[in-house]
Amino acid sequence: MKTVNIKPLLSPEWGISGETFVATQFGACIEFKTTDVTKIQLNFITDDQALSFAVKVNQENWQTVAVLEQKLMLSIPTKFAHVRIMLRSVGTDSMALWRQTVSLSTMLIDSGVVDQVPHDVPYITFIGDSITAGEAMAQDGNHPELSYPLLVAEALDKPLNRIAYGGTGLTASAPFQEPSAITALWQVASAIERQRVLTDLVIVNYGTNDFNYHATPEAFAFGLRIYLLELIKRFHAAKIILMVPFNGAFKDVYQTEIKRFDNFKIMITDDWPVSNLRVHPLISEHQQIAEYILRGI
Q: Which of 174, 184, 246 is nearest to 209 (CA)?
């Protein structure tokens, strides 16, 4: 087996810590092309985490592959292959994942060569909470590989940059305060810088957790105002779209606050076919959300 340089293959959701690569969010991806490779081994420092990844080879359906004994083993059935490996689940919640991280140490292949997939157009960036992360989309849990951010990115033929953590929001009412929405813009884990990529379109979905945990409109307005300034700082050259929560929460606040700026567009979503009986949209609803976003941009 020979070692592959992993760094060029990692999505922006990965950061660097010493000799390892770390991720703290569902949807973190490893993407590459292979020639004459039949076996791939990814080695993790998992700290006994129960990890699984969604894997797609060429145009086949996504398959779930578990990490066993700190190794993810893949067989490549074709001479040429396009491979995507996306973090799907861990044996902990989002806040604990931020603290513990998923740590990838090395990638090995049996033969052949691995090439990075070049991205010659700007990224599309999606930001939000567990809905944006693709959590709890079906009875078997998370499906970031089927979530609306990836569906929109694929439809636009743009690479995806996702910043999404379950339980987070823009007020102190949100159940998870680590990472904060602002911290997540700049860091991929505690004290580990998030990779900067050129992006020309940013779509933000916050407010569901704040509303569900009884944030007042005044508190949300204050949190949103601060956050919008940080978005301008981080993505000053991009078009930024703010999605109102699917249940219509804080719609008036959004409409009032963006009048202070020239940088934002609101996307009203409370008339979309998304059930408010559940916090997390189902797979079919993510498909509908993606279609509505594509119409709205």
A: 174
